[in-house]
Amino acid sequence: MCLELKEKNENHLVLLMDEMAIRKELRYNSKLDLIDGFECTGFERTNKIGKQVCVFMLKSMFSNWSSILNYFVSENGLTSNVLCGIIKEILRMISSFGININVLVCDQGSSNRKCFSNFGVSTEKPYFNFEGKKIYCMFDFLHLIKSLRNGLLKCDLKTPDGIVSFKVIQEFWEREENCNTKMCPKLTRQHIFPNSFQKMRVKFATQVFSKTVEAAIKTICDASGFKQSPQAVALSTAEFISKIDKIFDCMNSGSLYSDNCYRSAIQLNKEPHKFIQLFLCYLEGVEFVDEKKRVYFLDGMKLSLKSALLIVEEVLNDNSDTFFIMTKSLNQDKLENIFAVLRQKGGNNTNPSVAELNNILARLLAFKIIKNSSLSNCEETQDSMDQVITSVSNNEPELLVNEEEDNSLLYDFDLNDQWHENYFLEDSFCNQSDISLELVSIRYFVGYVAYKIIPRLKCEKCCEELRKKDEVLTAPSELFIFHKNYQSLTDFGNLVAPSEPLMSASVKHVIIF
């Protein structure tokens, strides 16, 4: 098994590349007897002052090992022709060491897209051959999610389920903006109306395409409905969000098993593997309403997903009982973390100079070279590059996370008696149009509290008093719990629908406090 894993590590390496803006500065390097800061692409050194640096990193697909290879300084970014030459030289150099790069990952910058095109890469053939070996090409899927959100801000999508519009999410947020309790407390103005800098943050995009937002939209559709957006558009938007949330989990898995099956590592014929295939077929019917709008991320998604499926088939066909692939190894998290370190060293240095980059990278690489002695009194922990990253600052960069909504929140309640009276009127579906979004969110919150308390109670009677006796949806305010359910065994799955006495007591506490 160890020999097989070692062989897989040597033959399945991932090459990451990404650019970062740097500060224009010239500084004399006494060790090399040259001036740092001029453009240097590896093939030639010019008299232009560099403003961009392209960093290349090598990482393993099956272990936590990673290493920075090199970086190249340019004035306005590397051209596609120069980039192709650098990539070929790196592939040739790595191959001479007896190891092989199997995957190439980058963002969807114009030079990167043209570089893939020069290699003959397309959605039908997401790889190119180099010295008789296939090199699979992928765009970082997390950046594609961000591009999808930015595209939806400008234009609606046509999908097999119907029209998808960001206006539905905007209307939902505006309705909840002034509520004391919210179904989606993490959604802020930055998510709905991002400025140019906020559009670059992947986290804001992934939190919009979440299970919680989908459940909230469906809850409103089943209750009072949307006033500005048609019901059909709202439902198709919710379905689209659900699919994006699942495919994000599939392409960002970090463990073998998870309570959410889509977050599990990819194994042949398991749920993540099947869903990627289904979503790829679904994408064939997705396009923008404005046919003249030029977009690249839809083709980028198709290319990346097809490449991931081919990698899975190549690696796992002969070892389906032994190996699995965690798709986190196919994204740019490691390199983005390095950029965060580069910006934090020496204070809040958003754009370090070339000379500063030399010093910082030298220190990072030193941590990779220096290893614990076998005679030391402690074990070596995780990848040393990760240790450097996590020890730089307690304020770690918020990167690429698709977390479930954190429900342990404190609200500044200011509810009136009329709202409390409306709660007791809710005993059937006859007045769904009058349902309060605050009532829906507080019932879910109280259910979450009960879910946390029940496992700690030893009294069966107390447990029965906290949760609803049956697992059937009977009240409009339970709609959010119903739509948040990941399972179909009961109406609520593992979630808890609080009992009426607990709900009544909680409402009274909300009014008082």
Key words describing this protein structure:
single chain, 513 residues, alpha+beta, Nucleotidyltransferase, domain 5, 3 domains, six-stranded mixed beta sheet, three-stranded antiparallel beta sheet, 19 helices, elongated, TNP-like_RNaseH_C, TNP-like_GBD, TNP-like_RNaseH_N
How would you portray this structure in words?
The chain is of the alpha+beta class and about 525 residues long. The protein folds into three domains: about 1-140 and about 330-390, Nucleotidyltransferase, domain 5, CATH 3.30.420; about 145-300, no CATH class; about 415-510, no CATH class. Helix content is about 45%, strand content about 15%. It has 19 helices and 13 strands. It has helices spanning about 1-10, 80-95, 110-120, 140-155, 165-175, 190, 200-210, 210-220, 230-250, 270-285, 295-315, 335-345, 355-370, 385-390, 415-425, 435-455, 460-465, 480-485, 500-510; strands at about 15-20, 25-30, 35, 40, 45-50, 50-60, 65-75, 100-105, 125-130, 135-140, 155-160, 160-165, 285-290. The strands form four sheets. The chain has a six-stranded mixed beta sheet, sandwiched between helices. A three-stranded antiparallel beta sheet has the order 12-11-13. It starts with a helix and ends with a helix. The model is unreliable at about 1-5, about 375-380 and about 385-435 (pLDDT under 50). InterPro entries: TNP-like_GBD, TNP-like_RNaseH_C, TNP-like_RNaseH_N. Pfam families: TNP-like_GBD, TNP-like_RNaseH_C, TNP-like_RNaseH_N.
